[in-house]
From TrEMBL, chains A, B:
Keywords: DNA-binding, Transcription, Transcription regulation. PANTHER family: TRANSCRIPTIONAL REGULATOR, MARR FAMILY, TRANSCRIPTIONAL REGULATORY PROTEIN. SUPFAM superfamilies: Winged helix' DNA-binding domain. Residues 16-122 form the HTH hxlR-type domain. PROSITE patterns: HTH_HXLR. The lineage of its organism: Bacteria, Bacillati, Actinomycetota, Actinomycetes, Streptosporangiales. It comes from Actinoallomurus acaciae. This is Winged helix-turn-helix transcriptional regulator.
Length: 133, 133
DNA sequence: CAGTATCCTTAGCGATACTG
DNA sequence: CAGTATCGCTAAGGATACTG
């Protein structure tokens, strides 16, 4: 319960965090986060410094192209740091920044919700299919 | 704390919630949630029963088409209920189901993160732009 | 009021091949 | 090792017009 201009406001008002500016702030995040590989990469980088090839091996199914692109976006947004070592053969290590790390708890909240509810959602989808036949 | 091949492993192991099945469960949710309108609609429906036209007015910028499509998907996944009243003119009310409501806390976690970090992220993007000029 | 139907553009992604 | 470059597909979404 919260108070706004003296009135007691029920829980639903919290959702103004979501609807706030017409959803623009939330969407700014969703647009960066909700692509196919970002959260997987962030979760993988949570173990510390990781090299390009290690990421490639630890994330099944990702192509070099998408790994590079997603890492560039994460670097550009300041969630991931990229360190190049002047060696031969070249070595590049990626790591989460403080902001990158701070993304993990909310991501875990979503993952927890997923694990809890996805089975029911899939059942619901299947039932919906049957109805329209 | 857990041990892997004799080494002590810290918190990062929590992220197996995300990486678990190669990220399939999490992606099943992200795929439904991360489109442009879903979370906005869910947040708007948190106020209770809402009619189609009310949703249309309360969500700035959404087209009839996308409102219908997104609502259908939410209904199909069991997050939203749809009630048709046999009246003239027609009346249709949408509401969150229990599962739909349960999505709000994780969504708020993400929205909170967004509000806290998006300014810094945008600054980082701008700086990145400048560097490549 | 509460939708459908149609057309169209763009962004995301995969596959493949090549390189400093 | 750590990437680029190019091509091609598909799905998301917007604009507009129509309807039981």
């Amino acid at each position: 319960m919260r108070h706004v201009r003296g009135a007691v406001v029920s829980e639903y008002e919290h959702t103004c965090l979501i609807r706030g500016d017409g959803g623009r702030t939330l969407r700014a995040v969703l647009d960066r986060i909700c692509n196919k590989w970002t959260l997987l990469i962030v979760a993988t980088l949570d173990q510390g410094n990781v090299r390009f090839t290690d990421l490639h091996h630890q994330i099944p199914g990702i192509s070099q192209r998408m790994l590079t692109l997603t890492l560039r976006n994460l670097e550009r947004d300041g969630l991931v740091s990229r360190t190049v070592y002047a060696e031969v053969p070249p070595r590049v290590e990626y790591a989460l920044t403080a902001i990158g790390k701070s993304l993990i708890p909310p991501a875990l909240a979503l993952a927890g919700w997923a694990i809890e509810h996805v089975p029911h959602i899939e059942a619901s989808r299947a039932a919906y299919q049957d109805r329209s036949r």
